[in-house]
Known about the structure:
Blueprint: E1 2-6, H1 12-22, E2 29-31, H2 47-56, E3 62-66, H3 67-72, H4 77-80, H5 85-92, E4 103-110, H6 126-143, H7 153-178, E5 184-189, H8 197-207, E6 211-214, H9 219-227, E7 233-238, H10 255-265, E8 269-270, E9 279-284, E10 313-317, H11 326-334, E11 341-345, H12 350-364, H13 371-392, H14 403-417, E12 425-427, E13 437-439
Parallel strand pairs: 1-2, 1-3, 3-4, 4-5, 5-6, 7-8, 7-9, 9-10, 10-11
Antiparallel strand pairs: 12-13
Helix pairs in contact: 1-12, 6-8, 9-12, 10-12, 13-14
Amino acid sequence: MKICFIPIDNRPVCYTLPKNIVEIDDNLELFIPPREFLGSLTKYANVDKLFEWIESIPQTDCMIISLDTLAYGGLIPSRRINDSFEQIKSRIERLKPLLKDKKVYAFSSIMRISNNNYNEEEKEYWKDYGKKIFEYSYSTSKTGKPVITSVPQNILNDYIETRKRNFRINKLYLEWEKEGLFDTLIFSKDDCAEYGLNVDEAREIEKLGGKTKTGADEIPLTLLARAIDKNIKVYIEYTEPDYKGQISNYEDVSIEQSVLGQLELAGYTYVTDKNDADLILVVNNFVDKQGELVMGWQTEPYKGCFVSPKKPYAVADVRFANGGDNNFVSQLLNSLPSEKFYGYSGWNTSANTLGSLLAGIKARWGSSYNTEAFNKLQVIRFLDDWAYQANVREKINAPCEIKQMMLPFESKVSKAFQVNTSNINYTYPWNRRFEIEVTI
């Protein structure tokens, strides 16, 4: 199957991760734009180059599209760009003829509202008024009417007009869906709270017949899983079954709802009887509240004794956001290698972890998968999600050389997957601690 894949931006989890996943299945061929065409933290995507690239590639069976990339230049630019609705509409109209005669899986973001004064991914004024704008949004949504705020009127007006413009673009996509241009269209809810203008927009989109999903970065990967036509019946096994109703950090639904929603979107069949399952999805969930080490948010680590399921299984490690659970991972690695192991993920939010894991399982499923490519993917995920995010990241203050600090973890991962880790390099693609790129 030939797949055209338009990422959100050039981060490793958006760009190299889908490539690593597709390499596992020799029956899949991925067409992905040159990395330099895509946006970064400070650069917008070259939309004209992207359209020229799409128009030049061979005919594909399906398209997986991050619509924000083509409309605004990326997910972050969607919050920053000052183009008018008419300019953006004119730009994306070029996409319509390219969607015909193939399956199209697309997603667009509902503009997030971060609860901080940190403007790295927002407009400049967020450093002074971010928390106040969040509070305005929350209270306005909760009361159903605008509230008094100390945010200067010109800044508040700019923020509200940016939201309205993006919301109009999303309603335009709903019209396209009615025209039959999308097989699947998802509107992502990123960094949600109980109330907010973004929550109101999501509710309005649902009333208009649209489908929303908590998450963002993982949705192209969940759609990739949906596009891979393999029927897999899944049974869910929580390490803390009494707490599956708890809500993860940065999400507005319970961990159980998040798991079930990702399975449905990824095209899996959920079963309640383990005997009927093809695969066991082990979810290492949290007690009371999800932890996050770099934020200083503690939670009870895994205290059980992990026993590998007798059926094929994969692990979604969501006890902590932005990093694996050391207690659980140490036991998991000791149980490897195993032919029944189908993957591990533990990066960023619960939705991020789940969506990327489910795509990897689909690629791995079947008897003719590429073992070397699968092992490479697992080495990268363990070294990134567990070794770096849960251990090394909190020991450094800025991007720096971390090879020596990673060596003990490389040794454990190398043993589990029988991979030579001497040629692994670590870089900071966006020049910040938040993400690294693990290159083999």
